[in-house]
Write a structure and sequence with these properties.
164 residues, 18% helix, 20% strand, globular
Length: 164
Amino acid sequence: MISVAVGLASVAALLRLPAVIGHPPDRVVLPNGMIIMRGVDPAQSNSGDLFAKDGATRLARDLEGICFNDRYVWVYSYDRSQSGLFDAAIDARLDGLSHDEAYAMSGLGGNRQACNGYYTGMVGPGLLYDGNTSPHLPSCNARNIDNPILQDRSWFERPCQGDQ
């Protein structure tokens, strides 16, 4: 009797295994092609890592918040040495720029908000993953729909929460 129970438990575990192994990581491809994927640090459970368009080259880790447009991503990382401006055209960090210089050259500043990208404020990467549902979504009010230079208008059709 015990061996039957153990056998049934083993079969049940094996049936669940493909779902666990085949589950894709939490990720989102930004309008500029860069990719955010959930980080591996359990202490930063809502953080993510920034990857180049190839999906393999990690550019920054432990993201706390991001501001992005069609070319650039400004990253605030829990590890401040990882923070900075990243250019999707070259899949690299642009070093040597102050925050103000980075915002001016990238177009991410200038709206009297914290961000002039697809959102009007910094967004935690955990709110952007494909397939998220409420309450794990960015605010609808934070969408920067009025910014006419943003090219991927379909981004504003993504799920959000709150007033619109």
